[in-house]
Amino acid sequence: MPPDVFFRRRRLQSLLFFAVLSGLTYGSIVITQFDVVQGIVAVPRAFVWAVANFIPDERAWSRLPRILEKLQETVLVSIAASTIAALFGLGLALLGANTTRPHPWLSLPARGLASIFRNIDVSVWALILLFSFGQSGFTGFFALFFVTFGFITRVMIETIDEISADSVEALRATGAGYGAIISQSVIPACLPQLISWLLYMIETNIRSATLVGILTGTGIGFLFDLYFKNFSYGSASLVVLVTVVTVILIEMLSNSIRRTIL
To answer: What is the pLDDT of residue 5?
Structure first.
């Protein structure tokens, strides 16, 4: 294909894409009756209101011990859900990966199960589990567990399949059993990646646990929802600040650990 025809076709495709995107945007504005001008004008007013109201006051600081207690609960639940899900996810990944699957028929069900758990959002899991466990810590734990389980299973299947099969074949040639191959070759090779993804999911789950707490009435999310609905904006802002600082500190710790193990 001549270069001028190729670039003309690419330019036409780009124009068509932006035309479709503009049409969808305009159609959405018309259907929802969204006032673009009012929306833009409201942004500065919203910013001024947030600065004036979301400032921790003396009453908010007096609630700091209670906030830290709930934050600790949220962090521990996130770590527990992520760690246990990683163990189960690694087990299912060993059954689904092409390198380690005991039978080819196990690969498709394992990958399908991981996709189901991974593609359902944590907030949807929380709403589903509310029917079984109500507003309790179990709801938040299992919501985080299911999403982490699906994600870890998927990434570990890909990680195991990317590992060189030389060491696996060498152990098989010596007559090593399935358990020896997994413990002596596969797990040591993929353990750094597993730890890295586990740390990433802990960071993600701490952020997600705030939303889950609002839905389930537990953890730091419950306090934010309580203070906000009671118009205690100073206390609600302190919850946000403490959560942000915690996430940043954990991210810094995770990055340090990743640099060490990778």
So the answer is: 63
Summarize the confidence of residues 147-162 as an average pLDDT. Answer: 88
pTM: 0.78
The 10s digit of each residue's pLDDT in 99-110 is 777 777 888 888
Output the six-digit token pair for 192: 């750094």
Q: Which CATH number is 59-261's, of 1.10.3720.10, 3.30.70.1170, 2.60.40.10, 1.10.472.10?
A: 1.10.3720.10
Q: Where are the domains of the chain?
A: 3-53, 59-261
C-alpha torsion 16→19→21→24, nearest 10: -130
> Alpha-carbon distance 119 to 109, whole Å?
15
Give the model's pLDDT for residue 88: 92
pLDDT at 2 over 70: no
Residue 191, pLDDT > 70, answer yes
